[in-house]
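Exam review. A common question shows you a sequence with its structure tokens and asks you to describe the fold in words. Practice with the pair below. Do the first one on your own.
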Amino acid sequence: MKVSREFFSSEMEKLHKRYRELDLALENSYDGIMICNNKGIGLRVNPALLRVTGLEENQLVGSNIAELQQKGIVAYEPITIRALQEQSVITGMQKIWTGKKVTVTGVPVFGEGKKVIRVISNVRDVEALSQIQHQDKLNRVWELSKRYSLELATLKKELEKSDHIIACSPEMLTVMESVMHLAASDVNVMILGESGVGKDIIARLIHDNSRRNKCGKYIKVNCGAIPYELMESEFFGYERGAFTGARQEGKRGFFELANGGTIFLDEIADLPLGLQVKLLRVLEDREIIRVGGENAIRLDVRVIAATNKNLEAMVAEGSFREDLYYRLNVVPMTLPPLRERPEDIVALLEHFLEHFNEKYGTNKSFSVEALYLLKKYSWPGNVRELINLVERLVITCKSPVILPEHFPRSMNIYTPESDSTTSLLIEYRYLREQLKKKNMKEILEEIERKIVLLAFKEHRSSRKVGEILGVSHATVINKLRKHGIID
């Protein structure tokens, strides 16, 4: 067969193009590559191998791998030699002359007669590989962190929309995150916590964010406020003529009213043992029978219970049924007391101060010492006590600025104004805390407001204040108005 020059030229161009592509791939490979013949002599290396090993091209090309081992350039038996001898793909760890560890994979290339004609060795820096894996882990952690931050930001926005929940502390944000997850299910929840921490608000929030908010009511029941003789009829309802004094048309009980929605059993520990048995039956059978009735009424009700007592201790002593406890306590949630989440105290104080200022048409504010002392106060009555205190201070305090001397003496946090050392210490500690949250301009504004307020309170004359502070009367008036001390 005669081959034309054009055909030969075309085929050579194709081969040349393929060679250039292979050459380009070899030169730009991130892994080190070395090609040896069937004697273990280096034929070619790429730039990545020189980078990994720290050697020059002339130290590898033309050299026998066995000789490299003798010179100490390769510490262990070379993978390339093993691939030649065993005629199979071999992967192992090698330590090179720099002390660096590398992974090497030797791949034999077979020619005619299944004889090895080449070995291609792929070399990768173990330390670099570890860094890549570490960076990959960091990237995953970063992505999780971003996602978690986004979820927290979303949660905070939801909280800002609510008129009931003020949460800044990590403890309460964790609680709120759990609330949002629980709202998506129908599981029974037991809310634990001291009196006044807001267990009823959390229960309502679970309902409001659940599907039941659209198809049923939220019924709150205080188990400790219902007379014993009325409990059964109040909980389960009654038929007409069931007892003397009953409504002629009968009455639906709390569970019927909550059908399709949520019933919140507050102070569940106060439920008498006799009614505990009947409540357990309702939870198990999902149906009730009205007092004086015969027909069972099917129920679809989610139960959320709450208590400030130790139910486990009550179970142990026999005052609370163990089987009912486990029925109600499917998912327990403990609300931390206010003293354990100081970040929330100032936020709550400011929120309710604004609320009651608007309600009563006032413009009161807390002094630096007042906020500091209230933040350190133990709040035995928790959020309920805080709300009552703020309302009381807004109503009773005649000064536009609420000072420690206005606190009820029963709180035992009153600081005599004459004790200047205590006052300065409080001021210093408060400002030290605020430096982490405010810039210098805001701190100086706070100090200026305090100085003007104290001087005006002592002298009751803007002209006298000007003399004491060494500023003009007009400046004092402007400062008093600026800081809301006078209208």
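Now try the second one, then compare your answer with the model answer below.
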Amino acid sequence: MKIVLGVSGGIAAYKAAEIVRLLQDRGIRVQVVMTAAAEEFVRPLTFAALSGEKVITGMFGSGPGAEHANVESAIEHIAIAQAIDALLVAPATADVLARFAQGIANDFLSTLYLATTAPVVVAPAMNVNMWNHAATQANLEILRQRGVRIVEPGAGYLACGMTGSGRLAENETIVAAVMEALGAAQDMAGETVLVTAGPTREKIDPVRYLTNRSSGRMGYAIAEAALRRGARVLLVSGPTALTAPGAAELTRVETAEEMLAAVLKLLPESTVVIKTAAVADFRPKAAAGQKIKRKGEMTLDLEPTADILAAVARRKTSQVVVGFAAETENVLENARKKLASKSLDAIVVNDVSREGIGFDSDRNAVTIISHSEVVEVPETSKWEVAHRVLDQVVKLRKHRGMVVR
């Protein structure tokens, strides 16, 4: 998911650097567009270094090479307008608000605003008299009627030396408004979510191991969804080809024992545990030190691996714990037994015998079972399943009287 952060000319422009970081913490890519006046307060290089994206400062390019601007640079505002999921302007000066309201497109930012159909959020910042002026208030009303979200400024001591309204809203408030515009309410802010994902591998010899078909996609989707809903995420991942969300605190493991150790170490920091990992149930009693040569039939002597959910159940305090179960028969019956035996708050079960969902797929269909209800989630993307699971987590927290902030 990607947004554009428009930075206009005001003393509060420096605060936009922190907004970039906060959005990145929630898994959002940020590209910065600066007005000419904004460059007088903060250098574009600052935002380029923070965002890892090209910073746009002019309609046809600027700086060295601008004389070679071409058709691509001339229509860049259209391409970006179609590619982004939201436009945020912070700080938004009285001038920017007026141009947006009146449809004046005389720089990259104002042209981008007219060209995008994505949600728009503006966070005004200006002198108190400018904020209270009838023209500014009329422009704000026009923008509200057109669906623009206004993050009202705070009151206090202003850079101009006056006191009153016009101070840029707190960064967390601005980011919350953006996430709401993106459809990701910050209903898990203040939570620390421990997610396990992917398979584990149990060594047979130096070149062979026991494992399963888990890709890790479900766990990684939950980790990213939790980040976007404001949570801190501790991701314990078995071997997978996926790239972890940048803001997740990642611990890589290979075996069930390693995953158990990582989970128990992080458990005291967590308020929610969601265990999607497909842990190998058995391991060889003794792994061979050298590659086993092919000599005909071979028997593997196996023993059970660590029961991570049972260990979490013994050590948990106030955490909400959600388990996952991949079943091929008696799906609901087996899931309910696991819900009780593992002292879980909820369990998410899916029938992995169905083709096209579950393992090796971006789609899933699950049943979420708690002690008070059963929620059916018909076939959909794993991203949507992740949010449905987190909806239940939020509900469980509230039912315990631990209202998510």
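Model answer, second protein: The chain has 14 helices and 19 strands. Residues 158 and 230 are 29 Å apart (CA to CA). Full marks require stating both points clearly.
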